[in-house]
Structure formats: C-alpha cells, structure tokens
Amino acid sequence: MTTDKPPLRFERIYGAGFSAVFDDLAALRIAVFRDFPYLYEGTVDYEKEYLKTYADSPRSFLFAVYDGDRMVGATTCIPLSDETPDVQRPFLDAGYSLDQVFYFGESILLPEYRGLGLGHRFFDEREAHAAQFGGYVWTCFCAVVRPDDHPLRPDGYRPLDAFWESRGYIKEPRLQSRFSWPDLGESVSTEKTMVYWLRSIHQI
Fold it and tell me: How far is it, in rounded angstroms, from Cα 132 to Cα 110?
C-alpha cells in the first residue's frame, strides 16, 4: 500500500474568475506576507478589496497551486493600465506608456512547498501570459525595501535579488512607489518604499 501524497494541482484563473477564490487567496497572502521582509499585518476585508482590481481586469491572470483543496501557492499579473494609480504613477512620471507594461503582482508560497522549482514556474506562467497578447514591451514587479539592520531581519536572511537577476530582471531605483500597511504587532499603517524591477518582454 502506498502512502504517497497526490501531486500538487495547478489552476489558471482569469479576470472575473478571481472572485471565486478571494477567500483562499486573501488567506494565503496574509499568511506569507507576515514573514520578513513584508511583516504585513493584513485583514481579509482589505485583501478582498485589493483583489477586486484583478477581478475587474479581463487580462488579469492567477496561477494557483493546490495541495488537495488547499491553496498553498499563487502568483498574479495584470496589465499596468488596469492597476491602481499608486502603481501606475512612477511609470507615468518616468515616461513609460501604461499600455506597454504588464505588472506582476505577488508570488507567494507556503514555506513547506519552497525548493520545488515553483518560483521559476511562477515567472514562466506570467511571462507566457503577458507575451500572448502582443503590444507589451515590459514585464515588471516591485519589492519592499528594508534596511539591512532591521530588528526583525532573520539571521541568514537572503534577499531574492540574485534569483530575480537570473530571470533577466533589472532593478530600476528611479521607479518607486510608497505603500502603507501596519507591520506585525502594530495598529497604525506606516509608509514603505517599493522598488520596481523590469525585464524586456522580447527576452521571453
């Protein structure tokens, strides 16, 4: 008798289909983003409001990973023209056309499922989704900036910069947004700097 677990299951969800997984995706975002460097003290109500942006975009995309019925990983993307003004603003200020940029949202995976190559799979799926439309020039994402001496930085913590560079992404310090959220244990939101990374879609 075998005791092997069933393989992980993958689902691709588009546009309005996001609304069917709001609860699962919100819970996963809150669980993963509690860790450094985000230290995010999230709420389901806020998450659902955030995810409406994706449900309202016909070209948005979610690649979800399930272990049985449990969502254990997910990655999203959306045309920058359908994102919120806070995300669009640095690109407009720098002279980019919003219609030429595809924005990659979160890549989130519970710790016990890391090391299986899913990080690369997340980028492969999003890049293929963006490339199919034609007309887009760039894919991008943003990452929070935390000081090296942050008191909650774990020992041995390694940022993902080398992984992102291996995927062909380049950090663009002139492209920055500032988002606010409460850190763990705090009730008041504080502003965080987010720096964008870009890659030419023609490299895909």
Answer: 29
**Contacts by residues 159-168 (CB-CB < 8 Å, ≥ 24 positions apart):** 159/37, 163/119, 164/197, 167/120, 167/123, 167/199, 168/199, 168/200, 168/203
Higher pLDDT pick, 171 / 181: 171
| Angle at 52 (CA atoms; ends 43, 144), nearest 5 degrees | 60
9-203 CATH fold: Aminopeptidase (3.40.630)
141: its two tokens: 């994402």
At a CB cut-off of 8 Å and minimum separation 6, what does 172 contact? 195, 196, 197, 198
To the nearest whole percent, how much of the chain has pLDDT over 70?
97
Mean pLDDT of 45-71: 95
